[in-house]
Amino acid sequence: MKHGISQRKLGRMPAHRIALLRNLVSALLHHESIKTTLPKAKEAAKMAEKIITLGKKGTNPAKSKAMSYLMPPHNSPPPSASSSTMIDPEDFVAPKSLLPKLFNDLSKRYESRPGGYTRILKFGKRQGDNAPHAIVTLVDGPRDVKFELLARTVGKEGLDLIEETGSLDNISEGWEGLTEKTKRQVEKVLKYRNDQEKKVFKDKAREFADYLQAEEAGYGGLRAPNVSPNVLKYRKPGMNTPKSGRLLHAGERLSGVSTHSTGLGLARGALVRTPRGRKEVDRNPRFWGQARLPEGVTAELTVD
What we know:
Layout: H1 14-31, E1 33-37, H2 38-57, H3 60-69, H4 99-109, E2 118-125, E3 132-138, H5 145-157, H6 159-165, H7 180-189, H8 195-219, E4 224-225, H9 229-232, E5 243-244, H10 263-271, H11 288-291
Antiparallel strand pairs: 1-3, 2-3, 4-5
Helix pairs in contact: 1-2, 2-3, 2-4, 5-7, 5-8
């Protein structure tokens, strides 16, 4: 009977597997975001949780255990000349140990969080062997991918509130104008963040909302028949029907549009049958303004 098997083999011998996990955990704590295969990402996230727990303890035995497991961090290049915090390359010294960051910065960041310091996001398949890719990030940090993606979702769904009040500043803790699923995700992501980080989140959402409106106004809408909607009820637009707006290429995806309108989404829609009882997904690429129109209503698009 086998006992004590709590990790994946990862196709490696024990010494190689331990060195691999030590390297992945050290890189994750140093860069706060790494990309690897999904099985290795799950094992690295599990070990990173234990190491961060040692950092929160802050005792001498915890420091000894962390020191014996972590490898030296990857050497980061000096900041570029375009950076606001320019450092002389001759004076730049890469960190030699992750212990100060672990027992000072990360322990303070996760002081009130009982667990769940990492997040795994699936990232497609690797070219060649088709292995599943994943991105591992430290939550509540500057490189949290979900923080960036969720801010765009809030900006897209909060456009109705922008039209009513003029900005997203009046959003309370209830997050009006968002779907229930997005509200739960926002509460989850911002639960342990301070007021300054919440303000940054709203600024990112407002910036993406402005981008959606500017793109729609700049392109003049999709290329559509410039005729009355009443005429379209009786006849379909032909080759001689006047067109206006921007020409849409096959499978093109615009900002804020569902991935169902991409080339892969169109191919899946053509090959996969819609399950019985489920509403068919509208795969027509549209701008934000067109997507919000009631069902059966078309808009007249004109170029100013």
